[in-house]
Specification:
Number of helices: 8
Structural class: mainly alpha
Protein name: NnrU family protein
Order of helices and strands: HHHHHHHH
Strand content: under 5%
Number of domains: 2
Radius of gyration: 18 Å
Distance between the termini: 21 Å
Largest sheet: none
Keywords: Membrane, Transmembrane, Transmembrane helix
Helix content: over 70%
Subcellular location: Membrane
InterPro entries: NnrU_dom
Membrane topology: Multi-pass membrane protein
Number of strands: 0
Shape: globular
């Protein structure tokens, strides 16, 4: 469990710093270090934190059961991921209606993803992992609102094609997770009996 906690502290500590750091160009660490070295160091620390999270989550199994989710929450989680995946993809595509309407689709997707997994998993390591992602997404949404980052401008042109691509790619990712990718990556199938144990 210590590796999971350490990874969460490193990964989200770095992201909290990004959310609260000064935006004044002259006083930012990037200005003193240089953009290249700062981005390199930031990436290395973020990757180290993420690797610790992944390693620590697996190493913490079996974990203490904090609560026993009812069976229906697993089905609800599958449905929520069907919503979360296209929203996540939309965040990285040119402006579409999804991106413009949700303002910060990546944060919305993380919240949906985390809530779904919290509903379906009652182990301590899962609660720590998904609870941390949910807490950070809520925190970061508050911070971007304080900074006045209200998403895309009202007059931005939206393309329906971006929404269609997001829906298609999101559906493909969702289907791949159900039919074996989740088991391959995380050691647990979405639906019992599908994929590796």
């Amino acid at each position: 469990m210590i590796y999971l906690v350490a990874g969460l502290v490193i990964f989200f500590g770095l992201h909290v710093y990004s959310a609260v750091r000064t935006r004044a160009p002259a006083t930012r660490i990037e200005a003193r270090m240089g953009a290249g070295p700062f981005k390199g160091l930031y990436s290395l620390v973020a990757i180290a934190g993420f690797v610790l999270i992944v390693w620590g989550y697996g190493a913490a199994r079996p974990s203490a059961i904090i609560w026993q989710p009812p069976v229906w929450t697993a089905h609800l989680n599958i449905l929520l991921q069907l919503i979360a995946m296209p929203v996540l993809v939309a965040a990285y595509l040119p402006a579409g209606h999804i991106k413009k309407t949700l303002k910060h689709p990546m944060l919305v997707a993380v919240k949906i993803w985390a809530i779904g997994h919290l509903l379906a998993n009652g182990e301590l390591n899962s609660i720590l992992l998904f609870g941390s992602f949910l807490a950070y997404a809520v925190f970061d949404r508050i911070m971007v609102k304080k900074r006045g980052e209200t998403g895309l401008p009202d007059n931005v042109k939206t393309a329906l094609s971006s929404d269609m691509i997001a829906l298609l790619i999101g559906l493909v990712i969702w289907g791949a997770m159900i039919f074996g990718l989740h088991a391959l990556l995380f050691g647990r199938p979405v639906i019992a009996g599908m994929g590796a144990a």
